[in-house]
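Researcher: We're teaching a course module on how sequence relates to structure. For the next exercise, students receive a sequence and then see the predicted structure as tokens, so they can try to spot secondary structure elements on their own. Here is the exercise chain.
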Amino acid sequence: MHMHKVTGNSDNMEEILSLFFSQISLLCFDKAKEIVERERDTSPAGPYRLFLSQLPNLLIAEKSYVELGFVSSKNKIFLRKDNSLKSMYEQLRQDLHKLEESSDIKVALMAGKICHYLMLRSQLIDIYEKLYGMGSSNRPMKCEEVLTQVEGILDAILKSQSDLNMIKASCIQECEILLYLLRALLDVQNCQFLPSLVNLHSAHIRLNTWERALQNRE
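Model: And here is the predicted structure for the students to work with:
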């Protein structure tokens, strides 16, 4: 049986990644880049440095996701045909998957956790694509299936044993906002107007919480 060996190079990985993902969750991408590049440049060659070299690509993908990089600039087309952002996540997931066999157990475990996170990101892009397709048709939106899918993603995030608390909390918040908005839409379709207002209010509270966090990031 192959034995993993922990090197001293990744002893401060948890602290570095906590800082890195905290900055991403606050949309401070330049600060996140500084953190990971400084750590990478001072680390010797090995699994940990290889792992760190992938994080700038994750940073680019996350920035593009927040800026709706999967949305076409053309008004008539919501999603880019090549869906380059989703491809970026998939390529990054494949690269990190290779590090799951690393001789450094900390690198291997963290690479696996980030791979799981990237998979959930891709699933959320699929959700937005499906919502656009439903909304652009002339038929009433049947959001029950999408609602179930978002609930599944949220459940997977809540059950994940991730150390990436800040980015995990951000994903939970995003999924909860989606859930409340979809439930509000479903309530309106069923003429349940009071429950719809309650769900809209719940979504509004979470949006305000997210906004305050961004305002206080400095």
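Model: If you want an answer key for the exercise: Helices lie at 13-25, 29-41, 47-66, 84-99, 105-136, 144-159, 165-189, 193-215. Residues 1-8, 73-81 have pLDDT under 50 and may be disordered.
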